[in-house]
Amino acid sequence: MDLLNIIKDAGIIGAGGAGFPTHAKLTSKAEYILLNGAECEPLLRVDQQLMAQFPDEIIRGLEATGRYIEARKAIIGIKGKHKEVVVLLRERIAALGLANYMEVMELRDMYPAGDEQVLVHELTKRVVPEASIPLKVGCVVINSETALNIYHAMAGKPVTETYLTVAGDIPHRMTVKVPVGVAIRDVFRQCGVENLDDYAVIDGGPMMGSVMNNVDGYVTKKNKGYVLLKKDHFLIRKKSMGIEQARVIGKTACEQCRMCTDLCPRYLLGHNIQPHKLMRAINYNLEDLNELKIAQLCCECNACELFSCPANLHPKSVNIFYKKKLAEQGIRYQPTQVEFHPRAAREYRLIPSKRLVAKIGLKTFDKPAPMTEVEFQPETIRIALRQHIGAPAIPVVAVGDQVKAGQLIGKIPDNSLGAAVHASLNGTVVECTDNFIEIKVGSYV
Ligand code: SF4
Ligand code: SF4
């Protein structure tokens, strides 16, 4: 079987958080294969530790993927501050005889170094055009955990586990390997947090993650971490504000200083996104949606809202508001340029991660979250049929069936973008809906 089908059968999706089915990224040839090991979300510590623990596996997974798409070069992007991991990766690349094919490039400690388009520019000096993808400039990007999953898939092991950092205002920050489908509350319990009454939980990193309304869900393949903060923390209050309240405040306080635009990572790459214009539009009820199509160029990195704006306003939320309106009306931004170049001021306007962490009130919690062995022994697991971008998987098991860890339980619908789903532990199917398969964990006989 070729690598694309191995990856497809193993249910591999982008482990960086977006959940795009990986096989669908590999249908075209590209000049570069890039490994995104930037992990720029504050407090999350998954990729840096995976690269330290499994360098050979990640290198081999990246190499195989690069050879498959006929890339002439593979580049690992990792922040230079992880000095020991950088040295280790270089040593292992040389020891594996791949020095002519693969190199490690050190990224600056800035936000959002892991944004796919920022990463492409930092590693290749190319700029992905507006509303486009890295392939347009000859690059395919995969995340470190994705490369590890590809290595395991080549050995016949599908994706049944994910690595998560549990961090924030808690006594024991840690990074753990969790079987897909375990209750999120179980993960917190294992990390020593029994009572969540005082906490709000951010699903993902503190910048791009959102505050969870309900923590009674189950872990999926694309989860990367949870940040637990007290309910009155600045980030929780800011992220919990609705668009109407944000609009009222913005109307009185936006001084059109342009800082949200001038520090926007996508604007600095030469794109036309200008959040200050969207703030102006919402404040003065300028309703010409054709003028507002630039909102679609926003990657929702949240830099404008959590770092740049001196008045602590909500330009990213306003972007999202207009994105939704445009989608409802089927309006799409059409680029007028083909080539893009970073703006001259870019080098002076990058956002240092340390300053960002301080600005968003996380300095006290910016501590290690060491990889910790935890044995999960849940009574039941619930495996979502949509853990990815695309159509939900179709169950191939029924109530009463016994399933084995690693067994296919949901397949990709015909002619659709999607990802296969596998049982993460042995047991018996006790419920099967259009949204999930629940398994009572037990021995397989
Ligand atoms: S940075 Fe804040 S105050 Fe300045 S234009 Fe943007 S939203 Fe308005
Ligand atoms: S969230 Fe703000 S800073 Fe980030 S891309 Fe969108 S407009 Fe730019």
Q: Find the CATH topology of the largest domain.
A: Rossmann fold
What small molecules are bound in this structure? iron/sulfur cluster
**End-to-end C-alpha gap:** 30 Å
The CATH homologous superfamily of the largest domain is called: NADH-ubiquinone oxidoreductase 51kDa subunit
Task: Kindly state the percentage of residues in helix.
Answer: 25-40%
Indicate the low-confidence ranges by residue numbers. Answer: none
By DSSP, the count of extended strands is 18
The largest beta-sheet arranges its strands as 7-6-10-8-9
Q: What would you call the shape? A: globular
Write a structural description.
The chain has 445 residues and is an alpha+beta fold. It folds into 4 domains: 3-154, NADH-ubiquinone oxidoreductase 51kDa subunit (Rossmann fold, 3-Layer(aba) Sandwich), CATH 3.40.50; 161-233, Ubiquitin-like (UB roll); 239-360, Fumarate Reductase Iron-sulfur Protein, Chain B, domain 2; 380-441, Beta Barrel (OB fold (Dihydrolipoamide Acetyltransferase, E2P)). Helix content is 29%, strand content 18%. The chain contains 15 helices and 18 strands. The strands form 5 sheets. The protein has a 5-stranded mixed sheet with strand order 7-6-10-8-9. The protein has a 4-stranded parallel sheet with strand order 3-2-1-5, sandwiched between helices. It has a 4-stranded antiparallel sheet with strand order 12-18-17-14, with no helix packed on it. A hairpin with a 6-residue loop joins strand 8 (199-203) and strand 9 (210-211). The two termini are 30 Å apart. The model has no long low-confidence stretch (mean pLDDT 95). The structure holds iron/sulfur cluster (2 copies). One iron/sulfur cluster binds at residues 254-260, 276, 279, 308-309, 311, 313, 315. The site of one iron/sulfur cluster (SF4) has 15 residues, from helix 11, helix 13 and helix 14.
